[in-house]
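re: ur question from yesterday

yeah so i grabbed the chain u mentioned. its 461 aa long if i counted rite. heres the sequnce exactly as i have it in my notes:
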Amino acid sequence: MTMPSLPSRHRLRDLLPGSSAGAVDLRDRDEPDPRLVQAAARAAQPYVDRSVQHAWDVHETSWDRLDPDRAVPWPVRASAAWAWRGLVLAAAVWVAIQVVSRLTLVVYSLVVALLLVALIGPAVPRLQRLGMGRTPAAALVFLGGVLAVLGILSAMTASLIAEGPDIVTNASSGITRIQDWLRTGPLGLEDRQIQGYLDQAQDWIVDNQGTLTQDAFGIFGTAGNILTGLVLALFTAFFFLKDGERIWRWFVQLFPRRGREAADEAGRRSWTALVGYVRGLVLIAAIDATGIGLVLVFVGVPLALPLAVLVFFGAFVPIVGAVVTGALAALVALVTNGVTAAVIVLIGILVVQQLEGNVLQPMIMSRSVSVHPLAVVLAVTAGGLLAGIGGAVVAVPLVAVLNTALLSLFGRARKLPEEVRDAPEGAPSPHPEDDARAERQIEEGPRAEGAARGGGGQTTP
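ran it thru and got these structure tokens back, copy pasting raw so excuse formatting
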């Protein structure tokens, strides 16, 4: 590149506006004439521009040679950026799963407490509207729930004690009837074949005696953990009933100021969805238990009440629980009352479950939770693989809560004005009065809103 030559001092003097040769004598001046300086700047501008452009061209050429990223196509760079961010998220999820797996007892206790509060918590604001204080109302609701559970367990125990001898007698005669049916029924087995199967079962028990003993001790250890978790869950549930609103406000304050209102709204909507899910699930479980219990009573199967209670609790595991508890009821009917009774019980269970799955569940659950059946199946399967029965129980409410929270957050983001949605973190809000009002609402809690709803007040832990 050819550089322009700078003008001489005499040339600069000639460039002065309105000047002529000899009009300005530079040798007689101690300081340069401002007009001369301006003229020099104008004359040197092309030289400066070309020098800067030349330096930039050299810099670009050198940078292209030194930086290998500029040689990589943009789609590849974008894919790599998404890939490493995805790996970071996957690592964070893996760490969270590892932490939860180490704290299984605490996590399950917390989940059970939340489910209990979602079921009985709405009664606390109703008692408060009757003039009762927060702590007495929470204590009364908590004690009522505990007494209800103890009453059900007491009834089950009394039924087991009262019908125990009859069960042993009926089971012995039932096994004899099953053997007769195997000989005279469509299978047509011979006595030596039946005895061979019985000998194989006995040999298996003898060979696995050590494993079964270890499993028995493991059951006792598991029972101890269950008792500890139950006490922790009850303790946590009481404080959620008593101080749930205060705990929730503290949790919301952990978010950045600009995100508190969105977090508060998403959390309250998720809690409403969880309350609706638990209420609907309890109603469906009660209908299942009542229907199957009536079938068992009609057929004359012993332990109808304990089996109905098992069906009730089994309904809390979607899809799988009802099938397992129903099969157990049919098996008891087979052993104690024979094949005909077992077939009648099985038909009754299928009718009740079809009515529940195709009529009651869509009608009840659609009002509070909108989760596709495929999502339910996948969630139950994944939860069972990751955490066993407890994971299967927790999977569906967790999916319902996350679905509601994400819909709330994404819907809110779409409704935000552009200047708020695109503002950097920490930037002042264009609507400070709205932020102040939202912060006051978070501080005060939803007491006024719960009072306005009348009987529909809810407690948010």
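noticed a couple things. Residues 42 and 318 are 83 Å apart (CA to CA). also Residues 9-58 form one domain.
anyway ttyl
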